[in-house]
Sequence to fold (339 residues):
Amino acid sequence: MDLQRLARTVEEALERVATAPDLAELDRTKSETVGRRSPTIQARRGIGSLPPEQRRAVGKAINEALRTLRGAIQERRAALKIEAENVLLEQDRVDLTLPYGRPRRGNHHLLTTTMNEVCDIFRSIGYQVAEGPELELAWYNFDALNTPPTHPSRFESDTMYVESPGGEERSGPDELLLRTQTSPMQARFMEKHPPPVYVVVPGRVFRTDTWDATHSPVFHQIEGLAVDSDIRFGDLKGTLAYFAKEFFGARTRTRFIPHFFPFTEPSAEMLVWFNGEWLEMLGCGMVDPNVFEAVGYDPAEVTGFAFGMGVERLAMVKHSIRDIRHFYENDLRVLGQYR
Fold:
């Protein structure tokens, strides 16, 4: 290769290097201009065939050409890397001057806030909060609460019974069921705690109710129990009247009418005057002595009262909700109104 041809080759190679659009094209240009099979390398290998007087000048020119090309390739590679990094940075750029759209904060479900509100009211007057199992024994759900085997609530038309995990036959007090009320915690709590007892029990309960505007097979209750040495029906009325005023408003009136529950005697239903009408709100009564005997308390030494209220009922009345299914259909247009 003569020196003029070498100069043209180097000039063409430098132009290709300078215009290489990316690293892949630059690598191809490098292979074709300074690689093992490039014209420049081939020319250096042919120096030995030249006349002795030309070898020095041609060898020097080829080495200079290779040094120039390699330097140009190295500079172009550095420039292309910077360009590639700038492209990535631009793609990842966040404009901090733009307004930041914060996601909307979540909130508790209305049933949860209702249960918390009720529990807080009773905590403020010295009650503690306890929880019990949803899978329950018939003994705690019925027998310990003075509910005889012939009571209609024990029929499968009202109660969901569960097969035992081991498949063994269970009957009577040992039958497994999904609790129909949170009242079983009355017996469970008194078994483990000596009097005095002041406790409320929130939780989920299950019954074979038809799914409609006012019934659900799964709903929530809050059970209350007070046991001490000299509790009277007036204490029950005063406690629940206080609760009603705290929950529904200071001008709320209450009324108690006779009723029947197996585990209380006497028993009553409490009505509240709310939005211009009397509404049934909860069941209550003085704890039956048979319940005290079932858990090892002496009925001659203690008295007490119990009450139970439906959480869905409380929320529906307070917020004028007409259909219980709104609580479970997860329609944010409905649930989002109660924040």
Summary: DSSP finds eleven helices and ten strands in the chain.
